[in-house]
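Entry, Tuesday afternoon. Goal for today is a structural model of the target with zinc ion bound, before we commit to ordering more compound. Inputs were pasted exactly as handed over by J.K., no edits. I checked the ligand SMILES twice against the vendor sheet because last time a stereocentre got dropped in transcription.
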Amino acid sequence: MITQVQEGVYLIDTMALGLKGFVAAYVLLDEKVALIDTGYASSLDVLLSDLDSIGLELSRVDYVVVTHVHLDHAGAAGSFVKFATNARVLAHPKGVKHLVDPERLVRSVEEVYGRATAACFGRTEPIPPERISGVDDNASIPLGKMRLRFLHTQGHAPHHLCVYEEANALLFTGDSVSGTYPGFPVFVPPSVPPSFDFFGAVSDLRRLMGLEPRLLMTPHFGVRRASRDVFEDEISLLHWWRDLISSEKERCDDVESITDRACEALAKRFGVYVKEVPGYVRLNIKLAVEGMVGYLDRLATRG
Ligand SMILES: [Zn+2]
């Protein structure tokens, strides 16, 4: 499903894994056309038919910007550019090699999620090297009236960037902010393995706050009104989460039990009651636990 956010700006619900309100992509129509994130490879058909429904010829797409290489963001990029034959993929320089040769990326996804779940993400096609470029921190490109500026924001992952559309003050956050998932309306910190960096994530949020964006265009999920308070809330959520996981980890080092306790704590913090956390959401919370545990372990060994 595709909805217009404002003139020339659309939100696509990629219906990831058949779920509504789980993974978003965005499209910007100006003299040039940019797609920001693509969703999973398995959502390609939805992406193509949504773009068709607003009358956009795929040959008009100039840029496919991926906020990072995780498959819910970049999974469909390789297959998409086979259809959008004039499009160039833009990514963080550290992400380029993973998209040109996605074998390692796919393998690590299989390790994290298991083969059966990873298969649901679809086949990640390589992007030909001549059709992808790395973008520097603070680099910008004009689309017409709109202009995109890229910000390397590496707390979530070393290959992560945010995109700021300057004319309308729209911040495409990628996973630099928390996510909320269907069936369990809490905000889950974006602390995924293998290289989540707590202080990096906090300084990313401070830098993004300094842009004074009007709207946050989040992948998980949708458009949120931006304000100083929204960023301060994100920062205090990260601190709370670090302290929670750190003290749960002291009591027991079983990730499944820490995840159960974390689900309860999130429900309490956000004042929601659900009888059972949906399986896929629980998996995302477990990843956020694992990423924070990994961070704390790295910190402890560094001393
Ligand atoms: Zn994501």
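Residues 70, 72-73, 175, 219-220 surround zinc ion (CB under 6 Å).
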